[in-house]
Amino acid sequence: MLTQAIDFRDESRALHALLAPLDDAAFVQATRFKDWTLNDIVAHLDQFNRLADDAREDEARYEANRGEITRLMETGLDMRSATERIYGDLRGRALLERWREGFERIGERWVDVDPKRRLPWFGPSMSARSSMTARLMETWAHGQAAYDLLGVERAEEDRIGNIVVLGVNTFGWTFSNRGLPVPEAMPQLVLTSPSGQTWTHGGSGEAGRIEGAAHEFCQVVTQVRNVADTSLRVTGETAIRWMAVAQCFAGPPVDPPAPGSRFRQERG
User: Fold this and answer.
1) Exposed, middle or buried by CB within 10 Å (0-12, 13-18, 19+), for 266?
2) Quick check: 226 and 256 in contact, CB under 8 A?
3) Sign of torsion, CA 166 169 175 178?
4) Residue 51, Cα to own-chain centre: how many angstroms?
5) Per-residue pLDDT tens for 130-153?
6) Which domains does the chain have, with CATH numbers?
7) How far is 224 from 33, CA to CA, in rounded Å?
8) What predicted TM-score, i.e. pTM, was given to this entire model?
């Protein structure tokens, strides 16, 4: 069983429950993530969810849809603008329903996929487990901008353990992706899960130590918060360097948001 498919579906459902009460006009609100609107976020999630599903079900369709995105970006459009071009006038609640239908279908169909099955993607192929973990991570990370905009504190669940593992697995890649030497040892992680469990990863602590809430570690490695805006306790040179540039998502190096720039807005 591919349990990540269930976790992805449940995270998507939680975000859908946040957005479902909104009317069409609310989806044009800009978030603190690069001024993306709620429309932009939902369209992006739907687009890449469907692209991942294409990779599983119909490789020719996947290549055609990926090619369309690539061609648009080669004309100078950024990801947001390319998605707008593809989705046209699909906005608001109609877009929300399309996204919901897609993630429910994926959650149902992917449960029985072999976790080790290789699937095409941008760059190297990836396992079905990695693909679904990436979909969960993106849903959780982009969803944070919506929670922040609407002034809602997310009720975290232990399914974020998948994102913790992704953050751990991309420790070395974070450095090599920036052309930096990869430290010989990873810092020790001692994290408290949403349910109160202690999750530990890494070595003995000789390379440093990171302690605190698991969801705040996830916020840092997905770059929805600057580490300075969390309560994580970070000690040791390697740990400090890692948390300053941590990046668990693919693509060229991206700097984290500036301190104080991403936060939950107060709603009267």
Assistant:
1) exposed
2) yes
3) negative
4) 15
5) 999 999 999 999 999 999 999 999
6) 3-155 (1.20.120.450), 161-245 (3.30.1050)
7) 8
8) 0.97
